[in-house]
Amino acid sequence: HIILTAILALLLCFVVLKIFFITWVQVRQTSMYPTYDDGETVFVNRFGGMSRGTVIVFYDSDVFSPQLASAFGWFSGDAQLLIKRVVATEGDKLWIEETEPGEYVLRISCADTGKVIGEEYFDADGNRVELAPITLKPDTAGVLFDATRWDPYVVGEDSVFVIGDNRNGSVDSRTFGDVPLSRVVGTV
């Protein structure tokens, strides 16, 4: 009976840990290359602080319970897990600015400070993440195509704006808009 009790206690601890604290998912896309490769397994912290530059895992549509769905695949229906980088949070303003003829960068006006920033991200080892420039075409700029400093795109309430590090090979908030926090599983 002691062995059975110990096995059941360990199983219960595993289930609680996977649902409420940490889980792992396999990257099934190239949108975060070179930061994460297709097929790579990443650990997801369900309590990680989400801020600009954080890489998150989220569902592409509403699910009954992101925690249960991501832990065991229950209740996810046709929803897919995605991994992207948070570039802006609630109230931030975004636009694309031409730096040289034909070259564009993403600009963000932070809602909390009003400061205009660009993008500079680092991987887990502290190395700078090199990002491809954004091209100003409807399919690659998406909702930011007509956004300007004077008429920017504004991130909605309780949402984040995410973009994959592989800028030209990522379907992200430029296409589908803001990601509601209710769909977020956690931070990588």
Blueprint of the fold:
Elements: H1 2-20, E1 22-26, E2 41-45, E3 55-59, H2 66-72, E4 81-89, E5 93-100, E6 103-109, E7 116-117, H3 138-141, E8 153-154, E9 159-163, H4 173-176, E10 179-180, E11 184-187
Antiparallel strand pairs: 1-2, 3-4, 3-11, 4-9, 5-6, 5-8, 6-7, 9-10
Helix pairs in contact: 1-2
Keywords:
single chain; 188 residues; alpha+beta; four-stranded antiparallel sheet; 4 helices; elongated
How would you sum up this structure, described in words?
By secondary structure, this protein is of the alpha+beta class. It is built from 4 helices and 11 strands. The protein has helices at residues 2-20, 66-72, 138-141, 173-176, and strands at 22-26, 41-45, 55-59, 81-89, 93-100, 103-109, 116-117, 153-154, 159-163, 179-180, 184-187. The strands form 3 sheets. A 5-stranded antiparallel β-sheet has the order 10-9-4-3-11. It has a 4-stranded antiparallel β-sheet with strand order 7-6-5-8, with no helix packed on it. The radius of gyration is 18 Å and the shape is elongated. The N and C termini lie far apart (39 Å).
